[in-house]
Design goal:
Shape: elongated
Strand content: 15-25%
Distance between the termini: 76 Å
CATH architecture of the largest domain: Alpha-Beta Barrel
Order of helices and strands: EHHEEHHHEEHEEEEHEEE
Helix content: 25-40%
Structural class: alpha+beta
Number of helices: 7
Number of strands: 12
Number of domains: 3
Largest sheet: 9 strands, antiparallel
Radius of gyration: 27 Å
Length: 275
């Protein structure tokens, strides 16, 4: 058997990493001396160590590696490989887009130093009672367009007449892109007796005052619109009376540059003096 120092030389892993894999029950030493705690590895474990190293190069997580090591089902391993290929391909496309954006900034000599904060026109008005096709889901925020498309398909199947563009309410207390709690809504013509499902429902939003503004451009900067509304509410004796929501008037479905996206941000409000 090999000491942890010698085994680390053979498999080109640090002793610290081998101890971590022991703790994670990925690669436990064949023998641990009870008197001094020294770890010893067998010759047959070199293959496992090299397999772990290769799977880490393939960007598998430790839980995924544990699953692969514990199964002898080639079909299951192949499925995990295909899933990882799709994940890496998505990341690669994202990196390509980032590189293209950076190159465009270089080519156009864009100044990255902060400029003046953009201004927003705030309007206060009454939103009439509306009926919406609604779906509240836990989702990866990158997949929101897919869920919106699904709502459109449900409306088309049931001959529900849509009256406007989709909106979204974000219920998470903090930004959780991989597992966001979002309600999607699309205004519809009122329907009576319409069956719902566990995936979607038809609901009525009551008449209420809303403070609203338009955000032009990328969703990355939409926080400035929310900030402008919050400051307007604080300085005009109003308080929030429900979750804010965003209505996507023009977005990715228009096949236009992100600089041309138009999003309406709405805050339901009541006058603080009347609350």
């Amino acid at each position: 058997m090999y000491t942890i120092s010698r085994f680390s030389q053979l498999c080109k892993m640090s002793a610290r990493m081998l101890r971590h894999y022991d703790k994670e029950e990925l690669l436990k030493p064949e023998h641990v001396d009870t008197t001094n705690g020294y770890r010893y590895y067998g010759k047959s474990q070199l293959e496992t160590a090299l397999r772990i190293k290769k799977l880490r190069e393939y960007r598998f997580s430790l839980p995924e590696i544990r699953t692969i090591l514990q199964t002898s089902d080639l079909e299951s391993v192949t499925g995990l490989m295909h899933s990882k290929i799709r994940e890496l391909s998505h990341e690669m496309n994202q990196y390509k887009q980032i590189i293209a954006e950076m190159q465009e900034m270089i080519d156009h000599k864009v100044d990255l130093t902060p400029g003046e904060r953009r201004s927003y026109d705030i309007l206060l008005g009454m939103r009439n009672e509306i009926h919406v096709l609604s779906q509240r889901v836990q989702m990866n925020i990158d997949h929101m367009d897919e869920y919106i498309d699904s709502l459109y398909e449900q409306a088309e199947k049931r001959l529900i007449h849509l009256l406007g563009t989709p909106s979204a309410i974000f219920f998470d207390e903090e930004y959780t892109p991989d597992h966001s709690d979002i309600e999607l809504m699309i205004p519809i013509v009122q329907r009576h007796g319409e069956e719902t499902s566990c995936d979607w429902e038809i609901k009525t939003l009551p008449q209420e005052f809303v403070a609203t503004t338009l955000h032009i451009g990328s969703y990355d900067d939409i926080g400035y619109a929310h900030l402008a509304l919050e400051e307007w509410i604080d300085s005009n004796c109003y308080i929030l009376h429900g979750p804010p929501y965003e209505t996507y008037l023009k977005g990715s479905e228009c096949d236009c540059p992100v600089e041309e996206y138009v999003t309406q941000v709405c805050f339901p409000v009541i006058n603080e003096a009347r609350s």
